[in-house]
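Hi U.,

Before I forget, here's the chain from the pilot set. I'm dumping it here mostly so it's searchable later in email.
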Amino acid sequence: MGLSRPTVRKHLNTVEQPKYQRLLTVSPRLDEYKDQLTSWLEEESKLPRSRRRTAQRLFEGLQELGYGGAYDSIQRFVKQWKSSAHGPKITEAFIPLVFLPADACQFDWSQEQVEIGVGALKS
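Structure:
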């Protein structure tokens, strides 16, 4: 597996699973293209979802402009931009479903035959 014995021993003795979190994302090649990428994202946020470019398409567009960095830098930037105040707003709403009697109904459309009180009439 390519792991040293001390590393395996350390992870066997821990209670939680180890998590790697990047403290600072460094993307020096992206710095000069951030303005272009931001303007594209702002323009496309006004379009319907089906007409927006994916992070892959944005990456390909930046490559045409001379960007030589990695795709994951673009992917992280787009994800961060969407989660910030610039991206589309996600709101939550709660509508209580309380109705007055005879105000709302639900029907199951089927045909049934019922015999009511047949045994009670014979006695």
